[in-house]
Amino acid sequence: MASPTTTGPYDSSTPDHLYTPYRRLREGLRAYRMIAAMWIRSTMAYRLSFAMTTFGNFAGTVLDFVAIMLMFSQVDRLGGYTLPEVAFLYGLTSTAFGLVDLAVGSMERLGRRVRDGTLDTLLVRPVPVLAQVAADRFALRRLGRVTQGLLVLGYAVAVLDIAWTPLKVLMVPVMLLSGGLIFGAVFVAGGAFQFVAQDASEVQNAFTYGGTTLTQYPPTVFAKELVRGVTFVLPLAFVNWLPALYVLERPYPLDLPGWTAFASPLVAAGCCALAGLAWRAGLRTYRSTGS
Amino acid sequence: MVSDAHDFIRLDRVEKVFQVRRKTGFLRRERHEVRAVDSISFAVARGEMVGYIGPNGAGKSTTIKMLTGILTPSGGRLRVAGIDPSRERTRLARRIGVVFGQRTTLWWDLPLIDSYRLMHRMYRIPDARYRENLDRCVQLLDLGDLLEVPVRQLSLGQRMRGDIAAALLHDPEVLYLDEPTIGLDVISKARVREFLRDLNAERGTTVLLTTHDLQDIEQVCRRVMVIDHGRLMYDGPLASLHEVGESERTLVVDLERELPPIEAAPARVVRVEGPRQWLAFPASESAAPLVARIAAAYPLVDLSVREPDIEAVIAKMYAERTERSGQVNEEGGVGRGGQATEAVS
């Protein structure tokens, strides 16, 4: 048998504080892929259950939009918006949220891991904790919502009479990306909060699921204070409202200037930076309190 | 690297203080400090096998969590293989293996081998190294028939063996085990202990384990540390612990009929129930001559020896310490000792 190991095993790894942000990101994504793949395999151990929950997820979100269609069978306009216009807003936010929910939706389970102590098993592995927590219980069934969102968005684009310019076309993927990042930041910040308050997942749901429901409707149906809140405090208005209203050539809420329609990527970057800081603070709190 | 061999793990007056908030009324909370680990110092050389024991809430798990980098110490200096665990947790993770007795790291719904393949990739273990280590663990932990079985179908003992293998695939230099034999049957316990001994002998892996089971220590560790109320009460060989604690083993004797209490000094009868009698004798004494003397003088049907309960040993140590305050540990004051006696009585 091999002689006693007296030197470090094939390890030339850099001290943690010398990790470049780029390397951390790459390591994190690598770990994320590996763990997500394991969860997909786990899910496939119960294929029928997977098929049924995916269909259920899809059907549930479809009914959600059916409710809006029913509303429009009684009224022609909602807050001044037609059904295809509402569908445009709805499809954008639903797709963006669906993608993020698929990617990091499991963050809301962090509180449970903190409570039952299983978070510790993630902390002794040589990969970033955020990646492990985000990939935890990765659930492909959440593709149901993405599918529904894309269908509604497709319907809206097909029916809407928009004078498409290259800029307007570009706005669609920009909205999905920055919207996704804003929701993702809310998920991560919510996860960080669960280090402190382990049963805070309901508060987080209010901002994530609540946020999508809000942005599925035109801003004109809500009270001004609420619109102000989701513009300046928790900037959900940048997920779709402001950029989409540019595409739809509609007036902006709160008399905001025209350039705000293009601010979404910046707002998203800012949200991610803040969420990253919150995450680090949360993890530091956990490691000093252990609960 | 020379000092590294002797001070592979080194703690200098390490402390961990938790702020605990207690509800004292509606919305009213009282804050107070709990010293989970109170100025602990020790060093472990490379290749040692150390048992870390103490009652629940003594600070064992907190120490392990600081050694693995999960928790940041509130004070003192701590190094494992020259690394500050709390600052370089990820880097340290490649060099340590951790087994949490009651929390599996294996993938519940997948065959055991899938969890190992994930470790292979996550720790970037070279293929040849991975295959060699896996083969070795499979052979010594008898996992051959279990590799394709989903983890949820494994028994507790099988899963523990599976978890130990998972923690060793990346050749860790030190293995921490938190209650590795808890809930296992006798055969599984024996197998785990034997494996740990072999691992240490063949690979020189440093092993640090926490346990409630004194036999884990007896059969695996040459050195034992007792911790209670966050303080190191004892550090040395197990045999001397019995002397320090003046602990007693119990001989349970079944006689043919009811008889007056057996006389066999230094053992003394502590309980009589019909034909069954309980005799206490110092743990440092051998049981064999005592049994021989009793068998020669009394009509013996059956007998068994009970090991001293670790909690009892520690309780005794406390009683000693309160009497001769400060002799075992020069840091220990009367106040602390009194508080501890209260807690164990």
TrEMBL record, chain A:
Alphabetically ordered keywords of this record: Membrane, Transmembrane, Transmembrane helix
Chain segments annotated as transmembrane: 48-75, 87-105, 146-164, 170-193, 226-247, 259-279
Superkingdom of the source species: Bacteria
DNA repair listed as a keyword: no
Stored PANTHER family: INTEGRAL MEMBRANE TRANSPORT PROTEIN, SLR0610 PROTEIN-RELATED
Protein name: Transporter
UniProt organism field: Streptomyces ruber
From TrEMBL, chain B:
Region span, Disordered: 322-345
CDD domains, sorted: ABC_NatA_like (cd03267)
GO biological process: response to antibiotic
GO molecular function, one term: ATP binding
Membrane topology of this protein: Peripheral membrane protein
Keyword Nucleotide-binding: yes
Keywords: Antibiotic resistance, ATP-binding, Nucleotide-binding, Transport
Cellular component, GO, one term: plasma membrane
Highest taxon of the lineage: Bacteria
Gene3D superfamilies listed in its UniProt record: P-loop containing nucleotide triphosphate hydrolases (3.40.50.300)
Domain ABC transporter residues, every copy: 9-254
Xref: Pfam families: ABC_tran (PF00005)
Major subcellular site: membrane
Compartments (UniProt record): Cell membrane
PANTHER family recorded: ABC TRANSPORTER ATP-BINDING PROTEIN, ABC-TRANSPORT PROTEIN, ATP-BINDING COMPONENT
Protein's name in the database: ABC transporter ATP-binding protein
